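Dear Dr. H.,

I hope your travels went smoothly. While you were away I took the liberty of generating a structure for the chain from your last submission, since the lab meeting agenda had it listed for discussion. I wanted you to have the full record in hand beforehand rather than looking at slides cold. The sequence, exactly as received, is reproduced here:
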Amino acid sequence: MPHLPFEDWGFHHEPLEIFYNERNTEYDTCNGSGEDPSCSDQYALDANVLDHLDYLDFDFTANYILCKL
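The corresponding predicted structure, in token form, is as follows:
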């Protein structure tokens, strides 16, 4: 779930979120508010770049280098 723009700026996120655990082996369907504090909204800002380079076992870096996107 995106964290930008911030809620403090008056933005409200999409209501449906599926939140995966760190290993992408389990997930929760969030409460539908778009701001469920037990899902991605529990983090003020997700600044871990590595989390954005591998998603559900798809390695964006390797596939970009090999032009497999």
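Two observations you may find useful: Helices lie at 60-65. The chain is about 10% helix and 15% strand.

With kind regards,
E. W.
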